[in-house]
Amino acid sequence: MTGNRGALVAILVVASVIGWCVAGDAAQSGIADDSILQAPPSQGQPIDIAIGLHIINIASINEVTEQFEMDSYQFERWTDPRLAFTPKGPNDRVRNYAVGQIWIPQLEMINAASPRTRGDTSIRVAPDGTVNYAERSKVALSSRFALRRFPFDRQALLIIIHPFLVDGPRIRFSLIDHATWTASEFESYSSLAQWKLQAVEPRVGTAPTYGGLTVPEARFEISVERRSSFYLWKVFLPLLLMVFLSWSVFWIEANDLSNQIQVAVTTILTVIAFAFAISATMPRLPYLTYIDAFFLECYIYVFLAVVELMTVHVTHRIEQRRDLGVRIRAYSKWLIPASFVVSNILIAVHFLT
User: Fold this and answer.
1) pTM as predicted
2) Which residues are CB-neighbours of 258 under 8 A, at least 6 positions away?
C-alpha cells in the first residue's frame, strides 16, 4: 500500500512539473493569453488592414447563371503591437502562429454564391508586430453580367470583400502594393476557352449597410473579354446559310409551288430546331442581346420568303395578275436581301455601339 502511494505522489509531481512547463511556454508564446484573440487597441482609430488578391485560376465563367469560380490567395497585413518581440538571434526574425492563436479580421466575400472553401493559411509576425496573413481559398461568386452586346461582350467580374459586421466599424482597408495580380502561368492552364483575361483592378472605399451605417469595402474587378469565334462559326454562319437557303425560292418557277413550299417549310423548321439546340448556351435575360436580335431577324426574313412565295403563287394563278406576280418576284430577288443587309447594319449599330 505504501509503495502505491509513493508511486501516485511521484506521478502527480511529474504531471505538475509538465503542466507548469507547458503553461510557461504557452504564456511566453502568447497562446494562453485570451486578450490577443480580441482586436488590438487602436485608441479610437480604425485598424488599417492592407489587402491584396492573387488569382491562381478562374475555373469557369457561366453567363447563364451569372456566376464564376475562382481559386486565389488572399493577403492581409496589419500591425498588432501586442505581438511585437525582440529577436533572440538571426533565426528569430519571424514568428509563426496558427489560426485561433491571435486575432485575425473576419473578412467575407459578400457576393459569394456559397461559403468559400478555405485551404492552407500562413500567419507570420515581424518583430515590430506587423502581421502578414495569407489564405488560399476556392469560391463561386455571383456578378452582374452586362450581356447586351453578347457574344461580343466584355465583362467585369466583381469580388467584393467586407469585414464581418462586428469588426466593420473598427477597420479601414488599404491596398498592398503589388499584391493584386494573376499567376504568371495563368494563360497556360486556364480553362477559359471563351474568355481572355485583360486586367485586375483593385479599389477600396466604404459601402452602406443597415441602419445608415457604413463598412469598409474592397473591390477587385477582373476584366475579361469574350472570344466570339465559337458563335461566329457555329451560330451566325449557320443561321446566315439558312436564311440564304430560304431565298432560293426566288429562283424557282412561280408555278412550282410544291418545291417552293418544301424549301421554305424545311428552312423554318431547321431554324427553330437550331434555336432549341443552342438555347442551353444562351443567357436567360429579361432584355434582348445582339444574338437575340439576330435570331429574330433571321426568323422574320425566312417568314418573309414564305409570304413572298405565297403572294407570287396566288397572283400567278390569276391570269390578269400574272404580270404583278412576275414583278413582285423580280423585286424580291434583290430587295429582300438588300433590306436584310441594311437591317443587320442597323442592329449592329444599335447593340454594339
Assistant:
1) 0.75
2) none
